[in-house]
Amino acid sequence: MKQKLLFTVAFSLFFIIAINAQKIEYKGNVYEVKGNSILLRGYNVTESLTLDDQRNIRNKYEANEKAFREAKKKNKTKDKAEAKAARKQSKKEKKAKNEAKEKKKFLIF
């Protein structure tokens, strides 16, 4: 159970880091989107791009953001379900342990 949780956390962190970079490949160049600016190799090229290029880059960025949010939501629900199952299993083990103690008490008397 712990391995699944560790794997999920590691995957989530990798996904967050990959998307958080906000890098978009368009027409053979890798652009970085920061707020309203589009950067190429650290330089602001927003004004030098055509409106269509700007729109396409922003659309790709928004699609990546949407995929990131959906994956984050899916991971969150999966983590909650795993935590709930772990709590349930822990309760069962505790209940079984308490029942065993009760049986021992009755055997002594």
Which properties best describe this structure?
alpha+beta; 109 residues; 71% helix; four-stranded antiparallel β-sheet; single chain
Quick overview:
By secondary structure, the chain is of the alpha+beta class. It contains two helices and four strands; from the N terminus they run H-E-E-E-E-H.
Total DSSP E strands: 4
Distance between the termini: 39 Å
Low-pLDDT stretches: none
Overall pLDDT score: 80
Question: What value does the Rg take, in angstroms?
Answer: 25 Å
Shape: rod-shaped
Q: What's the arrangement of strands in the largest beta sheet? A: 1-2-3-4
Number of domains: 1
Tell me roughly what share of residues is in helical segments. over 70%
Structural class: alpha+beta
Sketch the topology as an H/E string, one letter per element.
HEEEEH
Q: Report the portion of residues in β strands.
A: 5-15%
Main sheet specs? 4 strands, antiparallel
Provide a count of the helices.
Answer: 2
Commentary on this structure:
By secondary structure, this protein is α+β, with helices and mostly antiparallel strands. It has one domain. It is 71% helix and 15% strand. It contains two helices and four strands. It has helices at 2-20, 51-108; strands at residues 23-26, 29-34, 37-40, 43-44. Strands 1-2-3-4 form a four-stranded antiparallel β-sheet, with helices on one face. A hairpin with a 2-residue loop joins strand 2 (29-34) and strand 3 (37-40). The longest helix has 58 residues, at 51-108. The two termini are 39 Å apart.
